[in-house]
Structure to design on (730 residues):
């Protein structure tokens, strides 16, 4: 029955067992003496094994070593000189080996583990110890050699089994229940929370308009819906807004944040890019046409290869070169090569974070410290993008119009660089993807494959329907902009250092639905905004707030302050001054001047109809924004901005009271109101309806009349621009 006799076990008692016996034996009191007699046979049994099926090393032992041991005892600088990733450094027959097959009591690894000496801070659980014990006693068979440290996630890092890298899991939705409400309801109920009451018609219509087109609704639209706030009437509004050309302008702004779109080079020279706007217009048009997202992605990576005769596909590649570009050459080849590697990293970072939600760029100098991305993965990815260069090209053959887009050149061989150092090249690698993502990350290309073919293979690999990182990433972004926070609250990082999904089943269902909808985004928008979850009130409920202050379980709709662009655009709409001219070169609200070869952009406040276009059509050089936009957290385009900061500062109130654009627009607002209503009381009512979408209360009407009488109607219009209701979407 037993594999070892008692005599065999008694001879090699571990120091831990001997110490325990000595402690018990030297205790003089009778209770301790009795405990000794009780413990002795139990101590002996720790080295006796009842025969059991040998554990599968790769499925049970290796994951345990990875999760609990490898942080200290991996192949690189192992503590105590002990590397637990290879058989030769762990298993042997001599007494120096840390594991001796079938000899539990002689195995030093078991000795340290059994007395909770290792791991020092968080000893193994009883179940974990049993895995080691059974493995040693059954012969300590080894599996994959060496152990793959990226195979399994640990408390310190993500592995190949990380949730975002796994295939989508199917989840059923009961008939007659809205899918969003089904999954959100399960999580909410589990925490004892309930859905809030529906938002009132005015709040709901304003929310929908700002969400889908970034502009306020007219008073007449609000009043018409308030008279018939049915599901059918709401859906009519949803479809109307999704079909509006202003939808593309709104959602393109989110995308341009994400891809670090700017209209100057940055760095020392910071030269303007007068033809970069073609990419911005491509994004707007693609959203308006509901271009399938897989095509949208492929065109931005390799449109010039996939559709060489399609001008829009050429313009789409502006994505790859939307970032900063150092035009100052260094004094030697090493500095220039390093600068080129920095540029490739910027491009690679944009592709990886935008379309996969993975920080591939963190593996440039070594294997990713937190995600299952190797340094080889990084350089294979870099090889796919090695021919990308900044420049201008015709959007169509034999056409003089130039667009700022990829200017491809033959890619040199890509070496893995030791510690990212261009002076220490190692093996040459061919183009490929991230091996931990399911699918053929090996593109089966020679290392000297044509530049365009490399990008084509990368685009096709990324935008596969079965790429879980690709589909999860984009539906999470849609959720982020509709609800204020994504199901994963770090939209461009689905890895270990990012957030964890609040509703993993919903995330997977939405990703699968995107594929079912053939990658069209508008059906996903419609699905989200028609849910009860989206249409609930934002009112704060004390009991629910105590359980879920961050509203991760969506027991209400979180209020959100509008972005700076939406605030500026809303002012122009309310004042009746918005110039709805679409596309083409942007308006300039900066003065450009040079000094010692460097260009600078000084904010100015130009006046005229051309400068009253939507803010997305603003010429956006790096480093300079208008004071109003900067105060309301509009980001500098030098960096990816998947999630904007939303601050509340005194400067915002001061800007809404004193900024010259606000003063001028408030005056135009007052002139509009004066033209549409003659009596002071009627003017006050009209001003409230235009700006806030409601009638003033009696108290507000009384106070407003005093402001108008003392300071004029324009002063009241400034007050309304400064209202919390104007800048916050409830």
């Amino acid at each position: 029955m037993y594999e070892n006799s008692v005599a065999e076990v008694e001879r090699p008692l571990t120091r831990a067992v001997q110490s325990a016996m000595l402690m018990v034996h030297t205790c003089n009191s009778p209770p301790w003496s009795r405990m000794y007699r009780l413990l002795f046979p139990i101590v002996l049994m720790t080295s006796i094994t009842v025969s059991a099926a040998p554990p599968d090393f790769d499925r049970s032992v290796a994951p345990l070593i990875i999760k609990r041991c490898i942080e200290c005892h991996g192949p690189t600088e192992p503590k105590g000189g002990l590397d637990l990733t290879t058989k030769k450094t762990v298993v042997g027959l001599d007494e120096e080996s840390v594991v001796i097959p079938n000899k539990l009591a002689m195995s030093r690894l078991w000795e340290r583990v059994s007395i909770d000496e290792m791991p020092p801070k968080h000893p193994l659980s009883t179940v974990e110890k049993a895995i080691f014990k059974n493995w040693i006693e059954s012969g300590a068979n080894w599996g994959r050699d060496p152990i793959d440290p990226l195979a399994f996630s640990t408390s310190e890092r993500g592995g190949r089994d990380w949730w975002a890298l796994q295939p989508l899991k199917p989840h059923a939705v009961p008939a007659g229940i809205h899918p969003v409400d089904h999954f959100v309801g399960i999580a909410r109920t589990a925490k004892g929370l309930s859905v809030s009451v529906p938002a009132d018609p005015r709040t709901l219509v304003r929310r929908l308009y700002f969400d889908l087109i970034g502009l306020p609704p007219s008073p007449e639209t609000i009043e018409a819906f308030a008279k018939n706030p049915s599901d059918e009437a709401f859906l009519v509004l949803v479809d109307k807004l999704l079909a509006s050309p202003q939808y593309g302008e709104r959602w393109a702004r989110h995308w341009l944040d994400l891809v670090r779109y700017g209209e100057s080079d940055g760095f020392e020279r910071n030269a303007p890019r007068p033809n970069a706007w073609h990419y911005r217009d491509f994004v707007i048009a693609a959203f308006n046409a509901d271009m399938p997202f897989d095509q949208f992605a492929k065109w931005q990576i390799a449109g010039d290869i996939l559709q060489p005769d399609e001008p829009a596909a050429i313009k789409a590649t502006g994505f790859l070169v939307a970032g900063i570009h150092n035009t100052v050459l260094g004094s030697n080849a090493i500095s220039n090569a390093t600068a080129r590697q920095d540029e490739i990293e910027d491009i690679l970072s944009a592709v990886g974070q935008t379309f996969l939600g993975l920080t591939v760029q963190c593996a440039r100098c070594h294997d990713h410290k937190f995600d299952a991305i190797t340094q080889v993965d990084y350089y294979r990815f870099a090889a796919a993008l090695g021919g990308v260069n900044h420049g201008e090209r015709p959007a169509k053959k034999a056409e003089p119009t130039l667009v700022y887009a990829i200017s491809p050149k033959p890619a040199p061989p890509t070496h893995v660089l030791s510690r990212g150092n261009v002076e220490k090249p190692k093996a040459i690698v061919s183009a490929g993807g991230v091996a931990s993502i399911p699918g053929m990350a090996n593109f089966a290309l020679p290392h000297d494959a044509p530049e365009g073919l490399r990008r084509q293979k990368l685009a096709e690999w990324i935008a596969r329907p079965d790429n879980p990182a690709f589909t999860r990433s984009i539906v999470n972004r849609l959720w982020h902009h509709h609800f204020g926070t994504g199901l994963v609250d770090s939209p461009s990082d689905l890895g270990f250092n990012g957030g964890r999904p609040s509703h993993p089943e919903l995330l997977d269902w939405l990703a699968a639905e995107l594929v079912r909808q053939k990658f069209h985004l508008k059906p996903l928008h419609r699905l989200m905004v028609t849910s009860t979850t989206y249409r609930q009130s934002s009112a704060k409920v004390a009991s629910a707030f105590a359980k879920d202050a961050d509203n991760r379980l969506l027991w209400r709709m979180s209020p959100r302050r509008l972005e700076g662009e939406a605030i500026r655009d809303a002012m122009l709409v309310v004042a009746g001054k918005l110039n709805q001219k679409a596309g083409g070169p942007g308006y300039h609200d900066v003065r450009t001047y040079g000094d010692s070869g460097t260009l600078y952009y000084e904010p100015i406040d130009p006046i005229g109809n051309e400068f009253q276009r939507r803010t997305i059509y603003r010429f956006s050089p790096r480093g300079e924004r208008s004071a109003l936009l900067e105060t309301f957290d509009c980001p500098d385009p030098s960096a990816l901005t998947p999630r904007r900061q939303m601050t509340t500062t005194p400067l915002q109130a001061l800007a809404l009271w004193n900024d010259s654009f606000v003063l001028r627009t408030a005056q135009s607002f007052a002139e509009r109101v004066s033209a549409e209503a003659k009596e002071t009381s009627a003017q006050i009512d009209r001003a409230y309806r235009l700006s806030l979408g409601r009638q003033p209360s009696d108290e507000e009407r009384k106070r407003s009349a005093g402001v108008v009488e003392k300071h004029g109607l324009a002063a009241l219009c400034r007050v309304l621009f400064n209202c919390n209701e104007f800048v916050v979407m409830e």
